[in-house]
Every structure is written in C-alpha cells, then in structure tokens.
Specification:
Elements (H helix, E strand, L loop, with lengths): L1 E7 L15 H20 L4 E8 L4 H7 L3 E4 L8 H14 L4 E5 L8 H14 L2 E5 L6 E6 L13 H11 L4 E4 L2 H4 L5 H11 L6 H8 L2 H25 L1
Amino acid sequence: MAVALVPLKDLVEAKTRLAGLLRPSERRALAQAMVEDVLAVLASHPEISRVVLLSDDPGAHLLAENYGAEYWPETGFSGIGLNALLTEAAQRLLDQGCEALVILHGDLPLLRAEDITAVVREHRAGGELLIGCDRAGRGTNLLVLDRATLPGFHFGEGSCALHLAAARQAGIPARVVKRQGIGLDVDEPADLVALLPELEGCPERRTARMFIHGGLIERIGPALDSLQTTAEEIDEESRAG
C-alpha cells in the first residue's frame, strides 16, 4: 500500500491569480473545498494506508483530523520552500518504511479514486517514477515514487519537463501520466472555465456545492463566459493564420 503526502500552502494566501474573479474569502473557501475533495478521496482509498497533510495553515490540523490524516507543520522541518520541504518530508516517510509515496497537490477538484488506483498500480507494476502533469503538460500535480525512484523535486514553472529530465539524468526510470482528475488543477480563471462544466456531473463534491449550490456561479458566470468567448476567438484567429 502507499502513503499520500499533500502539501498545502496557507489558505489565506491561496489562489491569488483568481483575485479578479473571487473575493479573498471566496478564494480561501475554494482552496479549502478542493483540498477537502482530495482528502476525501485519499481517506477512503483502499490503496492508501496513510495520509499526511504538510502545511502551516492555521486550520490544517483540523482538516487533517476531519479526514483521519496526520498533520505535519512546516515548522517541523528545516527546509525553506516547497521543494526543500518535500525533500525532507519524503525522506522521513521513506525512512519510516513507506513502500510507495504519492505526492499530490490539494487543488485537484476532479480527482477520483480510480486516478489513485491507476497510478499506484502502474508504479507497482513498472517501478517507475510517475509524473502526473497538468492539463497543459507543463506543471506537475502528482508524483508517485519509492526509495529507488526518489527524484530531486522541481515544483514550479515547467516542473513536468524538469522532473523528467532530472530523473533521466539520475538514471531513474520515469514516465509522464495524463489523466483528467490529476491534470485539472485550479490556478487561473481559464481553469475555472474548464472546471465548471465538469462539476455538474459530481454535485456531491464540496467544490461543486460551492459553485452550483452556493450561488457563486451566478455571480462570476458572465465573466467566465466572456473569457471563454475571447479564448475561442483567439483560437479561431490562430487557425485562420
């Protein structure tokens, strides 16, 4: 079985690139809804024996408690920045006997149990470092690794290519995985344009309830429609050119 490690930044500072659409309280609520959806999948998954939430958000310990997860404060590590923190946390878990480690972000509102099943079983069968990329193929939303495939962490701009290149340079077998539930993270307004139609099919999720039943979609819907129309016009011009 595998252990899941979920790094979570302070929710007050989350999703600043959505500031043009969402109020500060709404951005915090969205970040919390998404991480709760992720934790709910992990907490009930038969392939996951343990979930660790790595964060310095003041409410992170309550989130962890609600989903039967362990809470590790960032202050318990010496590293500064996400990559340094993950290096220490991953090494600690591997030293504790973790056979397979799934590291994933908390802003994956479409994550499903079958996504976790697929990547854990693929790693078990092939022994590769699995890199779950975002929908653009540039960022990294998930890694599956063990002691033999522990990479140098390169989360940030262009991290998918960086993780793949670093693994190959170190002689670590690695492969990129593309799945909708792993690929759609939410950072920018365009991500909401892609997300909202998908949420209609999973109304039980906290993220869906926030938008659909909380009335938020009515307020920001016109702005998202305008954004989608502009994007379609740009695509048409590109194809015509």
